[in-house]
């Protein structure tokens, strides 16, 4: 799903969801579930219900619960909501006004990471019932509930880079590869004294994931896990994680320079 952002009273909320591709076998567009879920998140964020807020901050888990309750179409989806306040945003670039904590609610194997001085200092833990079976919201009997979502709080400061992505990136690129791709772009900008271009970094990460997914001899996080679990169709599986959402660029949802 494409990146999206909502602002309310100088509170910034980023949200993303990725449909579960196996619904395609039943000729059901699971992407519609993810899209409706995120639209309902927007409605909940913009509502005047004070219960959605706690101590001046958005109650992300309550937002997710309300959106889940109002999403009725067939399908299933992972979900990730991220919250920050006191940010000045200009297109892809955000500047952090004060040293603060970043709040998130995450369910499934999508997630985010924080890079500081080109090194990953935090990565959100994935939620899986077993290999290649992430937690997922949905209207079927075996779906997970918003109450299972992890509530996370991460310290961020000026100069940090935040990458939020689905498993299209996270299954196809190791952390050191992501660091290398980002540091390459940071190095180019330092030499030219230019403003960092998060969109260019995002494009590099998408290309990295695509290249790795189509290389049948390349070790990736997905293939390494599959080998440990002795699963078959390793390449088919990692291609599915990359191509299950459309368009391709939804696999990297956003990248912020704080």
TrEMBL record:
Family annotation (InterPro entries): PPM-type-like_dom_sf (IPR036457), PPTC7 (IPR039123)
Keyword Metal-binding applies: yes
Alphabetical list of Gene3D superfamilies matching this protein: PPM-type phosphatase domain
Entry keywords, A to Z: Hydrolase, Magnesium, Manganese, Metal-binding, Protein phosphatase
Record-linked SUPFAM superfamilies: PP2C-like
Enzyme class: hydrolase
Cofactor dependency: Mg(2+); Mn(2+)
The reaction(s) this protein catalyses: O-phospho-L-threonyl-[protein] + H2O = L-threonyl-[protein] + phosphate; O-phospho-L-seryl-[protein] + H2O = L-seryl-[protein] + phosphate
Enzyme Commission number: 3.1.3.16
GO-annotated molecular function: metal ion binding; protein serine/threonine phosphatase activity
Family of this protein: Belongs to the PP2C family.
Name listed for the protein in its UniProt record: Protein phosphatase
Native species: Dillenia turbinata
